[in-house]
Amino acid sequence: MKAEDVVRFCARSLSGYPLRTGLMLLAMAIGVAAVVLLTSLGEGARRYVAGKFTALGTHLLIVLPGRSETVGGPPPLLGQTPRDLTVDDAQALTRSSAVRRVAPLMLGAAPVSLDSRSREAVIMGTTADMYAVRNLEMAQGRFLPPGEVGRAEAVCVLGLKLKNELYGNTSPLGSFVRIGPRRFRVIGVLTKKGESLGTDLGEVAFIPVASAAALFNRASLFRILVQAQSREAIQRAKQAVLEIIRERHEGEEDVTVITQDALLATFDRIFKALTLAVGGIAAISLAVAGILIMNVMLIAVSQRTAEIGLLKAIGAPGKQIQRLFLAEAAMLSLVGAAAGLLLALAGHWVLGRIFPEFPLSVPVWSPVTAVSVALATGLIFGVLPARRASRMDPVVALSRR
Amino acid sequence: MIRLENIERIFEVGDERVYALRQVDLAVRPGEYLSIMGPSGSGKSTMLNILGLLDRPDQGVYRLDGRDATHLSDRQQAELRRHKIGFIFQFFHLIPRLTAAENVELPLTLAGVEPSERKERVAAALARLGLAERSKHRPDQLSGGQRQRVAIARATILRPALVLADEPTGNLDRTSGSEVIQTIETLNAEGMTVVMVTHDPELGRRTRRQVRMSDGRIVSDSGAAHES
Fold it and tell me: How many domains would you assign to chain B?
């Protein structure tokens, strides 16, 4: 029997039972679509998080006061609080050749007011280098001026949301706002760059770190952001930071350095595992579809007993009949898988419409795996019915009407 | 053409052994027109199935065209069925989803004949049986007599030497029954050997040779005398 005749014969027998065929195709299609869509959601989540981290800045190291390591032993009853990180510590870090820029960050909250309007805002005391370290963008004006770190200049840069709440659509450049009890001249407005790691930069006011120290009457920094010279220099920069701080803190290593890459890699691993897990769960639905195909094919075999008997009587060997039923299962899975891919495409489009900023993306392996798993289950679960058909006794098969 | 020697076929029903055929000897020459008659359960259908290689005897030897057909593999038997034997059934056994032409085409498709040649042969076969206008109809759009003639066209499309008919008119009214019998007799006149199982005595009388069976044995055979 020629291949194209096998295909035509199977197509006729599949289209001869539209409801049954339709249900099997639906099951297959849902399985394939689930695999593709779920893995693409997982991959999208991974990219989303990766994107958020990159938005934080490049080759970034974050220095936090305190050790995050947990060590055994009794709790520190007698004041073992770590030393504060200071602006001088931050300045000292620039000594290392692996470090390109350093931006100290002092954090506080204070009301920002203009005339009678007042907003509670996050105040970030920092230096001009923050602009490059964090990849900030200006909507208007300029960022904090470079210069002597110790100078408490009374200038500030507002987040876009904060500016809109205070000024509406008028330009704030050159005017004065009150932050706490002090007056600051507005020299710039940030663009709407969204949030990064929980802090909405729209509701922030940046002021020079010395001004922040005076405002909050403290010397300790919340973080020091360090930008390494290059990706390769990140590890060197981390070592240098630890050494310099230890030296300055009388031999105590009382800071924690987080590298952005390490965080990113961890999240990357988590999300990859997640994607695989979700894909695996979806693949189970494919297996279920396979079992459904087996079920329906078994019913088909018993319904088509007379046909099988006839095929034997007009000279089809058992092997040929087995091939016919296997070909039918394969066609079902292939058409079902194709329908599933179309379904996934449609779902993808709809999701893209609903969440435009979510970076949905289909990893190449997922449709390939989905289709091959579909085909494999179709064939594996098609074997049993096909063998049953080929072993049918033609005398019994033909004796029924 | 056909030579059965000491054929036995035993079915096991529970603990009992039921003899469907016992010590059956039969010889059929090419071109014969033969009916096998007998009450239900006399073994005539089993005999036809063994002749058609759908069933294997437990004992004895079946020679088809001088060749031992008893011990062939599934594939070789299928090959013989395809090219040497045509079956006609009481219930037609047409595939309901296929048109008359497609049903007739099926043996050619299985044999791997080229599509263009298939179309020609199918059209010719249908025309010969007066079904040319019905070729695009599905079985449920055909009358009983037409269905049986489509089945005959299918059985003979590969010009088999042996036609086996199992109660070919059992499901038909008188008029279409006699049409079908005429068609079968034409095939015989063209040289095909016809073996027909029936319990219609009138039909049996029309054949040139009658074999009567009872209880798994041949009890009378009008043509046995001039066996070659």
Answer: 1
ipTM of the assembly? 0.89
At A102 the three-state DSSP class reads strand
Whether residues B87 and A316 touch (CB distance < 8 A) is answered with no
* Option in A1, A310, A398 nearest B109 (CB): A1
- Give the nearest partner residue to B78 out of A9, A16, A317, using CB atoms: A317
Q: Give the tens place of pLDDT for each residue, A207-263.
A: 999 999 999 998 889 889 999 988 788 889 999 999 998 888 888 778 888 887 787
DSSP B217: E
Helix (H, G, I), strand (E, B) or coil at A49: helix
Helix (H), strand (E) at residue A264:
helix A260-303
The range of the structural domain enclosing residue B110 comes to 2-226
Summarised one tens digit per residue, pLDDT across range A103-119 is 999 999 999 998 888 99
**Residue A84 DSSP symbol:** P
Distance CA B2, CA A101 (A): 102
The SS3 call for residue A182 is strand
Contact criterion met (CB < 8 Å) for B97 and A401: no
Chain B contact for A353 (CB, 8 A cutoff)? no
Q: For position B47, which CATH number holds?
A: 3.40.50.300
Write out chain A residues lying below 8 Å of B106, CB-based: 311, 314
User: Could you say which of B79, B80, B93 has the minimum Cβ distance to residue A306?
Assistant: B93
Determine the Cα–Cα distance for residues A350 and A37; give it in Å rounded to an integer: 11
Q: CB within 8 A of A50, min separation 6: which ones?
A: A264, A267, A268
The alpha-carbon gap from B104 to the nearest alpha carbon of chain A, in Å, equals 11
Report in angstroms the alpha-carbon separations of A232 from A103, A229, A266, A360, B158: 20, 8, 18, 30, 79
Closest CA to A283 of A366, A380, A349, A348: A366
